[in-house]
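Q: I have four molecules that I believe assemble together. Could you output structure tokens for the complex as a whole instead of separate predictions?
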Amino acid sequence: MDTTIDDRHPPAADLRLSTVLAALADPARLATVRALATVGDSPCSELHHTTGLRISRSTFSHHQRILREAGIIRERIHGAQRILSVRRDDLDTCFPGLLGAILDTSDALLGAP
Amino acid sequence: MDTTIDDRHPPAADLRLSTVLAALADPARLATVRALATVGDSPCSELHHTTGLRISRSTFSHHQRILREAGIIRERIHGAQRILSVRRDDLDTCFPGLLGAILDTSDALLGAP
DNA sequence: CGATGACGTCGATATCTATCGAACACTACG
DNA sequence: CGTAGTGTTCGATAGATATCGACGTCATCG
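A: Yes, here they are, computed for all four components at once.
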């Protein structure tokens, strides 16, 4: 019963490096993507908790939108909740090695917590 | 007779991923770094011309500062001018594969011109 | 149906950032 | 010494962005 809303997800061909980097530049979003990448799939609220970020739900939703519009994460509707995942394949196709380099970086070198 | 001003350059140990990504997220700075990487070394004014960016010298100087403070470029004083170069070694040490992924991306996928 | 839980959107706000021109500092050269 | 070239810094400004709480929407569960 899962649904994907493609309207809100840019096709792989439309991904732009500047946009992706801008999305990943924010510490909260960087932490979110890294957490999501290690977990695999996760509903919003669970991910919000996993990251341990002390930001409101609306702010988290805002970051989530930035990441989605940049083409970094995908949203899948499952009942009342949305399952998030990293668009590894598309990212690796457009920017080979980029995601890997970002995920391989040690926590100590991330930035402001 | 070249001089390096270390005060203004963060040591490799202080580089942070968020900061580096934020610095590279701006299309003008991204183009600057890519141009500099292909050229090797270049004085400011020459690089400013190479990139073809239609921004003022003061704005270019601003971007240059952001890149330097992020640890991405190095400045070396040579007479009246400053020679810029990419800190490949330090970047590769801290964030293996990151710079390569960014330089390997095709021009069409960069972002706003 | 009514309540609850999960999210998104809106409007407001405070901060950051990109941009510019003018003014300044320094080197080189005559 | 004066002029030209190179680059930075300052002050101002317009636009972006991160943040929040309140409200609306949709699904689920009783």
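A: One point stands out. The helical segments of chain B are 17-25, 27-39, 44-51, 57-70, 88-94, 98-104.
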